[in-house]
Amino acid sequence: MKKFVIEGGHRLEGEVKISGSKNACLPIMAATLLAPGKHLLHGVPKLGDVYTMIKILRVTGASVEFKDHTLIIDTGEINNPKVPYELVSKMRASFLITGALLGRLGEAYVARPGGCAIGPRPIDEHLHGFEMLGIEIKEEHGYINAQMGNRQLAQNNVEIHLNEQSVTATENILLASATAKGETHIINGAREPHIIELINFLNLAGAEIEIKDDIIVVHKTGDSLHPLEYEISADYIEVGTFMIGTTITSGDVSLIGAKWEDSRALITKLQEMGVEVEKTNNGIRVKTNGSYNSCSIKTAPYPGFPTDLQPQLTSLLALADGTSVVTETMFEQRFNHIPELIRMGAQVEVDGRSAVINGVQKLSGAQVMASDIRGGVALVLAGLVAKGRTEVSRIYHIDRGYEELEVKLETLGAEINRES
Ligand code: EPZ
Questions:
Q1: Less Cβ crowding at N or C end of the chain, within 10 Å?
Q2: How many whole angstroms from 76 Cα to the centroid of ligand 1?
Q3: Edge-to-edge order in the sheet of strand 229-231
Q4: pLDDT, tens digit, for every residue of 178-222?
Q5: Within 6 Å (CB) of ligand 1, which residues are found?
Q6: Residue to mutate (ligand 1; options 25, 131, 161, 164; most atoms within 8 A of CB)
Q7: How many CA atoms within 13 Å lie on the side-chain side of 275?
Q8: What is the C-alpha to C-alpha distance for residues 97 and 62, in angstroms, rounded to an integer?
Q9: 3-state SS string over 292-341?
Q10: What is the distance between the alpha carbons of residues 96 and 92, in angstroms, rounded to a whole number?
Q11: Which positions are annotated as active-site residues?
Q12: What is the CA(41)–ligand 1 centre distance, in A?
C-alpha cells in the first residue's frame, strides 16, 4: 500500500503547469464512440480514471493508444454494447459509456454503478432522461439493459426536465441525443466547465448544441459525427487545489493554464479571506502573507462553490482566523476528511450537512487515511503546513484524480515523498 510522507512547514513557490481536466476528459473519451474513425485527444492526464475509461473503450471495440498525454482512439469498429461490472464498479463515471453506446449502437448493457465513499450516487436522472428519448430500460442481475426500442420516438422533439442538476446525467443525455433524429431540450441541466467542454467537442464533431435561455438545446443532426483532434483544457479542480495549497503554506505560485472564469467561486472566497489572486498572461497567480480570515461556504452546482473543492477548503479554514461554516449540499457523506483533520489538531464540529470550524494556530503531523479523491488531497494540503511528519495512506484514491501530485508539490518546494 503506497502512502505520501510529508514534512510540513515549506512554502509553495514558483509555477506549476495544470494537467488536463479529468471530468472533461472522461465524457469526451466516451463521446468518441459517436464519431466513427480516428480521434486524437491531447492534454490527457495520466490518471487511474483515464486508464479505466481506456479499458472500457477497448471492451466496446475501440482501439486505444496512450502516448505522452495524447490518446489515439479509433472507433471505426464499435460492436459490443456490454460493459462489465468489474469496470463500472471501479469508477462511477464509467456509466457515461451508456449514452455513447445508445447514440452509436442504439443499445447498451452496462452494470449499474455502485455508491462510493461520498454517498449513494443514484442514477435515476440518467434513466429518466434515456426513457424520455424513447429508450426502453430493463434492470436485471445488477445490469441496466437499455434498448432504443422504436427509434422514431427519438425523432420527435423531446423535453427532459432534470430534478437534480446532475453532471453525468446531463452528459449521458447529451451523448444519447447528439445524433438523435429529433430535437432534445434539457431543462435544469448542469453547466460545469466540463459540460461546456463536452458540448464544444460534440459541436466540433458535427453536432448542433446550444444553450438558449438556460436550456441546453440539442438540434437534430440525424447522422453520425466525424472524428477530430482536440486539446483537453486545464482541470479547474486541480487549479483550486493548488490555490488552496499555496494559501495554506503562505506561498506564491503561478498556475499555468488556469482559466479565471472556471475558478471564480473559489477566487471570490479567497479574496474575501484576504488572499491575493491575480490574472496573469498564461494563468492565475496566488500569494499570501500567511494569515487569512475565516469564511463560510455552501456547495452548489456551477457557478456555485464546487463540492469538489469543499474538502480542500475545509483544511484551509482549519487554520483561518475565526469561525467558518461549511455546508455540503451535494453529497451525504463528503466530510470523511474531517475526523482525520481533527487527529491533526483541527477544531471542527459536524452537524448533519454542516461543519463548524474554529480556526487554530497550528496543526500537527499525524498518520491519516484518504477515503476519496478530494478528501485525500485535503489531508495532503493539511500535511504541507502541519508541524512535523504527516503520512497519508490509501493514496490510490488521490491518484485517480491528480497526475504526479507529489512531483508538482516538490517542484514548488514541498517536502513530500511517495513510499510503500
Ligand atoms: C460529477 O459526479 C463529478 N464526477 C464529481 O466529481 C462531482 O463531485 C459531481 O459531479 C458534482 O459536481 C465526474 O464528473 C466524473 P452529480 P456525478 O450527478 O455526476 C444527485 C471528483 O472528485 N443525483 O452531479 O455523479 C446526487 O446524489 C468527482 O472528481 C441524483 O439524485 O454527480 C448528488 O446529490 C467526485 N440522481 C447530486 O445529484 C441522479 O441520477 C449531484 O450529483 C444523479 C445524481
A1: C
A2: 31
A3: 63-67, 70-74, 38-42, 229-231
A4: 988 889 999 999 999 999 999 999 999 999 999 998 999 999 875
A5: 23, 26, 92-93, 119, 121-126, 164, 166-169, 190, 307-308, 330-331, 373-374, 401
A6: 164
A7: 32
A8: 12
A9: CECCCEEECCCCCECHHHHHHHHHHHCCCECEEEEECCCCCCCCCHHHHH
A10: 8
A11: 116
A12: 24
Rg (CA), the chain: 22
Which residue is listed with cell 517536502? Answer: 415
Burial state string for 309-345 with b = 16 or more CB within 10 A and e = fewer than 16 = bbbbbbbbbbbbeeebbbbbebbeebbbbbebbeebb
* Cell numbers for 330: 451535494
Q: How far is the CA of 413 from the centre of ligand 1 (A)?
A: 34
Residue with cell 469508477: 91
Q: What is the pLDDT of residues 153-182, one digit of tens each?
A: 556 789 999 999 999 999 999 999 998 888
**The C-alpha cell of 187 is what?**
431543462
